[in-house]
Amino acid sequence: MTDVTDGVLHTLFRTEQGGHEQVVLCQDRASGLKAVIALHSTALGPALGGTRFYPYASEEEAVLDALNLSRGMSYKNALAGLEHGGGKAVIIGDPELVKTEELLLAYGRMVASLGGRYVTACDVGTYVADMDVVARECRWTTGRSPENGGAGDSSVLTAFGVFQGMRASAQHVWGDPTLRGRTVGVAGVGKVGHYLVEHLVQDGAEVVITDVREESVRRITDKFPQVRVVADTDALIRAEGLDVYAPCALGGALNDETVPVLTARIVCGAANNQLAHPGVEKDLEGRGILYAPDYVVNAGGVIQVADELHGFDFDRCKAKAAKIFDTTLEIFARAKADGIPPAAAADRIAEQRMAEARRA
């Protein structure tokens, strides 16, 4: 993994994003490990972010994903009020085919070699059991099982935080912080989405879901028969009467094809990097759609794994995650005052906090 194209280098160093402090290309031939660890910023403290295990089409695609995701973590951690910068790791390969204990141990040694500049956790394709293995070689590992000194599944608080962001969005649009009587479409009901559905049902919302995995859909409908199912995401975003759209799968959900046909008044979901490219946030605003910035509302999980480093306390974490409601309202107020989309307002607040930390 030594080839990095000019385009990737430009993304790495471009100053309007603050640049990336360090990118490590990792390879262990014995285990087959190929990974990228990207540290965007350590201004607020050691970089913290999950490990994504995914069958990228190319090494360049993997590097670009690590760069984008790590930058997002800097902003997420800043707005969550954590003493952590942003980092992310990606492991190249299909986890169903190539994930082994030997590979995870090799990855743990790679993270440990950074001496605490990067703290890792779970992400797409990695789970609590995987972090238990990684932790055998690296003490800067969170998202471990309770049996191994960790906090367990961070999806619980991630979903709780998204729900708080959705309540704040409802307050901003309709003047009432509840989804009762509103129709909410959830795209992706896996790790986080199924917990979000529980919050919504309990709050009195009418829920519509879609997921490519039949077993994920069945788990929801078995528990909540009143939840409606549609064939795919395209059908969901076009559904009449949809009040809120919650993308909870992979990124890029808001793009040039989906935004023009989206019927919802609010977008608030758990997926990372929902905006496919710069400018989409303006398209949403132009259509009168309120966008709750993803890295703000989905910060409950990172709040949990950060707390794990200091001796996990669920009630303390839940109280911190509940503040996502206030942070989301603060962003909407800043956006209105500055005459900019909420995504831009969130960026400004996060950048201000990182700049103040660097000056300090």
Automatic annotation (TrEMBL):
<dbReference type="GO" id="GO:0000166">
    <property type="term" value="F:nucleotide binding"/>
</dbReference>
<dbReference type="InterPro" id="IPR006097">
    <property type="entry name" value="Glu/Leu/Phe/Val/Trp_DH_dimer"/>
</dbReference>
<dbReference type="InterPro" id="IPR006096">
    <property type="entry name" value="Glu/Leu/Phe/Val/Trp_DH_C"/>
</dbReference>
<comment type="pathway">
    <text>Amino-acid degradation; L-valine degradation.</text>
</comment>
<dbReference type="GO" id="GO:0005737">
    <property type="term" value="C:cytoplasm"/>
</dbReference>
<keyword id="KW-0547">Nucleotide-binding</keyword>
<feature type="binding site">
    <location>
        <begin position="188"/>
        <end position="193"/>
    </location>
    <ligand>
        <name>NAD(+)</name>
    </ligand>
</feature>
<dbReference type="InterPro" id="IPR016211">
    <property type="entry name" value="Glu/Phe/Leu/Val/Trp_DH_bac/arc"/>
</dbReference>
<protein>
    <recommendedName>
        <fullName>Valine dehydrogenase</fullName>
        <ecNumber>1.4.1.23</ecNumber>
    </recommendedName>
</protein>
<dbReference type="InterPro" id="IPR006095">
    <property type="entry name" value="Glu/Leu/Phe/Val/Trp_DH"/>
</dbReference>
<keyword id="KW-0963">Cytoplasm</keyword>
<keyword id="KW-0101">Branched-chain amino acid catabolism</keyword>
<feature type="domain" description="Glutamate/phenylalanine/leucine/valine/L-tryptophan dehydrogenase C-terminal">
    <location>
        <begin position="152"/>
        <end position="359"/>
    </location>
</feature>
<dbReference type="InterPro" id="IPR036291">
    <property type="entry name" value="NAD(P)-bd_dom_sf"/>
</dbReference>
<dbReference type="InterPro" id="IPR046346">
    <property type="entry name" value="Aminoacid_DH-like_N_sf"/>
</dbReference>
<comment type="subunit">
    <text>Homodimer.</text>
</comment>
<keyword id="KW-0560">Oxidoreductase</keyword>
<feature type="active site" description="Proton donor/acceptor">
    <location>
        <position position="88"/>
    </location>
</feature>
<dbReference type="Pfam" id="PF02812">
    <property type="entry name" value="ELFV_dehydrog_N"/>
</dbReference>
<dbReference type="Pfam" id="PF00208">
    <property type="entry name" value="ELFV_dehydrog"/>
</dbReference>
<dbReference type="GO" id="GO:0006574">
    <property type="term" value="P:L-valine catabolic process"/>
</dbReference>
<dbReference type="GO" id="GO:0043837">
    <property type="term" value="F:valine dehydrogenase (NAD+) activity"/>
</dbReference>
<keyword id="KW-0520">NAD</keyword>
<comment type="similarity">
    <text>Belongs to the Glu/Leu/Phe/Val dehydrogenases family.</text>
</comment>
<dbReference type="InterPro" id="IPR033524">
    <property type="entry name" value="Glu/Leu/Phe/Val_DH_AS"/>
</dbReference>
